[in-house]
Amino acid sequence: RTAAACERGTPVRCGQAIRLTHLGTGRNLHSHRFASPLSGNQEVSAFGEDGEGDYLDDWTVVCSGTYWSRDGEVRFQHASTDVFLSVTGEQYGRPIHGQKEVHGMAASSQNNYWKVMEGIFMQPSEVFKAEQHHAEL
Length: 137
Description:
The chain is mainly β.
């Protein structure tokens, strides 16, 4: 989230505010109170430079349990406007034919569950491993 850094391998807590940055462009997933062009829901776009942006780039991780599990479904709720990151059936004709519109929806639904499908698995940090196996006496 704004002014915070996440070390690689640090688990993400359910309820934690995060910023999602596109590695190729350095732009953040961003939303604001404008209508999206196809569905009329809330627009979601890319914003900022090299991971720097503003408070409208912050999303809350909505999941069950303590941490976001790579095997589990997750929702992302915009921290400032409360919409859920969603995708429905609307597709662009131009400039990228067939690309689906990603937007923000006011209500939670099946259209705003996300699941990790590819990527690199990072081993949890040593602090997280100790926290998981600590038991009170």
